[in-house]
Structure formats: C-alpha cells, structure tokens
Amino acid sequence: MAQIVLFHSAHGLRPAVHAAADRLRAAGHTVHTPDLFEGRTFDDTGETTAYEAASAYQEEIGGSDELLKRAVTAVAPLSAQGLVYAGFALGGAVAQNLALADEKARGLLLLHGTSDLREDASTEIPVQLHMAEPDPFEPEDWVNAWYLRMVRAGADVEVHRYRGAGHLFTDTDLPDYDAAAAGRAWAAALAFLEELDQS
Predict the structure, then answer these.
(1) I want to staple 28 with a disulfide (CB 3.0 to 4.6 A). Which of 1, 53, 92, 185 is the partner?
(2) With pLDDT > 70 as the criterion, what percentage of the chain qualifies?
(3) Long-range contacts of 46-55 (CB under 8 A, 24+ apart)
(4) Residue 132: CATH number of its domain
(5) In sequence order, what are the beta bridge partners of 86?
(6) 85 with 105: CB under 8 angstroms?
(7) What is the average pLDDT across 170-196?
(8) Domain that residue 31 falls in
C-alpha cells in the first residue's frame, strides 16, 4: 500500500487532519502528518479569520520558503520510499511543490488547494484534485490554467469539482463541511490510491 505524507491546511494540524489520516490508514496505507506550524492551530475569531492569523504566522517565521523547508525536512527520511504527497488547501500547495521536485514520487492527491508551476516543470505522476465549485481561494480560471500547465508538464491529472460545497468541505470541524461532497471525494481519493498501488 501507499506511503502517504499528508499536509495540513492553514488551520494547522487539527483533529480533522488526524481523522483523515486514520481514514487512509484504515484502507491499508501508511500515513505521515507533519506539523508545519509546530503545534500552532488557527480558527476564526471575532477579530480575524483563521486564514489571516495563519498568514501572519507564516510571515513571522519567514513565509512560504520556511514552510517548504520544514516540509522538506519532514519528508527527507521518507523520500527514498516513493511517496504519495497529499494535502489540504495550503498543504496541497506544499504537497505539489514537493511532489514535482521528487523524482521518486508516486502520486499527488490535492484537496482544496494547488500551487503555481515553474515554466520548466516536468513530471509524469498521477494527480487528483478535489475542489469546491466555486471556490473563493481557487477561482475557475486559475484551476483551468493550473490543469493545462500540469498536463503540459506531463502529469496525468483528474479534477473533481463539487458544486455548492464550501472551500474545506472535507473538514468535519468547520462550517464548510459537506458530508455528501466529502463522501464522494474520499471515495474517489481511495480509488485513486488503490490504482497507484496496482501500478
């Protein structure tokens, strides 16, 4: 079965991420959940949103470059095993960057988030993306352009859209949670991982 590294969203490594990892483990996969925020978690308050608080924290620690350094450090002992990279929203962006830089990567599972690609990006890994439709953080034009760039880079890409769902619709602890959409997403994700295991 797959060796999966699952990166958390801007909310941090919360119970919903552990629950997702347990869901994947129940299907027979080994799952690692690095904590890029070193124990910090963020929720909406009366004064600021979780995304604003997480963004401020990232600036404090050195921005996206520092997050990527922490992610690389976390996966370094595992990368020789041929990893499947996965992530929620911000964690999806981190997962994408690591997967495209890892020649041994076996796959990329993105839930609610993507990242830009370099012009010279090249990869042949299978990729599955799950997005709300519409998604305030991933506009349709962006997702369409991302898809074309990924295909041009050589990836085998599936995009699943969920009309009417909230941004983080798989997160049971957030108002965005949509049980029906989450159920469909997890069914597709588990099938994707099973196909990777057979390839």
Answers:
(1) 1
(2) 99
(3) 50/10, 50/11, 51/10, 54/10, 54/11, 54/12, 54/90, 55/10
(4) 3.40.50.1820
(5) 6, 109
(6) yes
(7) 96
(8) 3-198
Which bin fits 112, alpha (ψ -120 to 50), beta or left (φ > 0)? left
Element (H, E) at 132: strand 126-133
Strand order from edge to edge, sheet including 3-7:
30-32, 3-7, 84-88, 107-111, 126-133, 156-163
Task: Using alpha carbons, list the distances in angstroms from residue 128 to 15, 18, 37, 115, 169.
Answer: 23, 21, 25, 14, 16
Over residues 132-145, mean pLDDT:
94
Cα–Cα distance measured from residue 136 to residue 148, given in angstroms and rounded to the nearest whole number = 20
Sign of the CA dihedral 41, 47, 52, 58? negative
86-118: per-residue pLDDT in tens? 999 999 999 999 999 999 999 999 999 999 998
**93 within 8 A of 106, measured Cβ to Cβ:** no
State pLDDT tens for residues 31-82.
999 999 999 999 887 778 888 989 999 899 998 899 999 999 999 999 777 9
For tokens 């909406």, the residue is: 44
